[in-house]
Structure prediction request, 108 residues.
Amino acid sequence: EENMMSNVIHAKEAEFNELIQKEELVLVDFFATWCGPCKMLAPEIEKLADEFEGKAKILKVDVDQEQALAMRYGVQSIPTLIVFKNGVQTEKRLGYQPYPKLKEMLNR
Prediction:
């Protein structure tokens, strides 16, 4: 079982919409449960959420459950990582990203 004190938010569409509007800095991991690279990325995302607690919100969106969101942001391959600043998409990266790259995306 994963760490129950996770700072990662598993977001459905309504919550996602609210958070990207409300929060200054948000990183979204579009993933699927069957995706190998997504599984590799999961612990890095957890670590990121811990390190950026209070500074950024880290969301995970399951593309199988939230197909409308995946379509809205043109997510075709997973994982896809998108950074939002004040509700505006500022960066998008495809595929597994090592931890230093994730931090760099948020620190820009």
